[in-house]
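Q: Start with the shorter request: fold the first protein.
A: Done. Sequence, then structure:
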Amino acid sequence: MNRRHSAAAAITLVCALAVLAAPVQAFATPAPPAPEQPPKSGDAEASGASGTSGTSGKKSLEEVRAKIDDLYRKAGAATDAYNLAEERSKKQSGEIVKLAQAIVEGQAKIAELKSRAGAQAREQYRNAGLPPGAQLMLSGDPQLFLDGISRAHQGQQAAKGVLGELNRTQEDLETYTQDASTNWTKLEASRVKQAKAKKKINEQIAAAKKLESQLEKKERARLLQLEQQAEYKSQTAWLSSGALKEINRGASASGKKAVAFATSQIGKPYKWGAVGPASYDCSGLTSQAWAAAGHPIPRTSQEQWRQLPHVAVKDMRPGDLVIYFGDATHVGMYIGDGAIVHAPRPGRDVTITGAGSMEILGVVRPDK
């Protein structure tokens, strides 16, 4: 009876999976396209002293830009945590469903085995409860006795087989039920992590949007200029290091497909947790691009960095993924000529920018 209760409880838990629904994906730090011409020197400081309402004291636009950048970076880290928990939840949900199916099949098998055992018991009852050997001895027919001995032996073996299979099936059923309970506990823990990460993401994005909303129209335009200027400065420094001179490799066939997919998404809005087709976050774009190229890769930027083969920056080729920042919370796809295509952050669209416009952690190659 306890086995039945535990099995039923596991199946009930599986039914609750229907309420699981959550978006996925990694985040991005601000990086709109670098301007074709360098901004005029001194621009960063020119209007920087402009005060912004709602901030403590007077902050320059550069300070506001840095704060917004920091908020989006933190949201990016929280997004990767969310996405990782989401991936684990999906895996655990799938395992629970399989276990539930095994439990149902096990219960059906037990019912069938019990029916067979009952049929054997009823057959013996119809023979006045005498064991097969005694029945044959009383038959008085030697040939019938010899033939019956063989059938009786086969029947005994079949009965033992039914009972043995019944015991094994009951043991398997208990194991399935215990495993389902364990996986359900893990699933609940992942859901708690998802909820916490989602809360952090929303808080960071809301804080960044609030800062931007407190700026006047001219200041918001200037803020975008400052973002572009910061990117330009970083990209120029990267190019000045001679990095691009070492990069002269052509894309692989799969890499060309991935680049074609990613660049065809230019202009679509960033949305955290999105994997297309209407919007993307940074790792949503790269994972979908490589899936379209026939090479599925991990969903998050951190897992892409952890699991995919690393290559030196000097060996980079179009289609490779450039991972950014020490915590691997942003990713873009290299498309050649020192540029990447990426989904920057909320409020920005999928765009092209300099590969060196952000702090490069390293490069990975999905089809190595």
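Q: Next, the second protein, separately.
A: Sequence, then structure:
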Amino acid sequence: MSTNVLSTSAPVGFGGVVQEYLWNWENQQLRVVYETLGKGSPLLLLPSFSSVSTRSEVGELAKLLAPNFQVVALDWPGFGESSRPSLNYRPEIYQHFLEDFVKAIFNTPITVVAAGHAASYVLQLAVKQTAFSKILLLAPTWRGPLPTMGASQQIAGIVRELVRSPILGQALYKLNTTQSFLSFMYRRHVFTDAAKITPSFIEKKWHTTQQPGARFASAAFVTGNLDAVREQSDFLELVQSLTVPLMVVIGESSPPKSREEMNALVALPGMKSVVIPGSLGLHEEYPEVVLEAVQDFLLFS
């Protein structure tokens, strides 16, 4: 495992120093791209899992945090500019990756800001070892889209294998990543201000979905194969096992089922939380509002 500095002109970057972390999984080397911006105490900024997941979705938030922190944001394996091999993407991969990455890049417990589905992985590592000094969860989720819609594990598994198949899978994936479909999904449960869902914005999102191998990790996420926990009780138990400060940010327009899960989380005794405008993509749509809501927690608590 090693790190190397890459060109800083990355199209999905946000102006920081772009590096690669070479990580081995089951005798296969994966290239994981990450970006560092700012000076100060280290802060790990993790994007959510989605078909369009890249570190650029937390780029504006990274720039706002950079005056007070040395911000490190990454592209998860299988997403963004990182390697996208045809692995059987599952929680074990990301659990090991996050543990190894944190150990390799940081030498003290750090603040971590995790969006969406990254929440479970952060919580599991925090319970396992003293990796983090403070945890901020942005619109946290733990269940993928198909399971949230009520699909059984069997049906989700069939869909996942179809998308992974060579010819039919590529066709199905392309149908579900057209620019019109991406725009529809953003309007439905990611952004709340339709004026921000411009053609150029959607084109950038579409571009990342069309990279070689993009369908494999995406299919795993959509079908629930990246769900690190299977039950709400397991997710809440992780939170209750924490020994470090935790804060949760919720979008007031979150989809009903996701909002129910978030409400159960913030109902736990002593939970620090705030509700702000936005939905599941609040960290990208309203980064200034996020910063204003959480800066006291990040800087002083």
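Q: Describe the second briefly.
A: The chain has 13 helices and nine strands. The longest helix spans residues 91-105.
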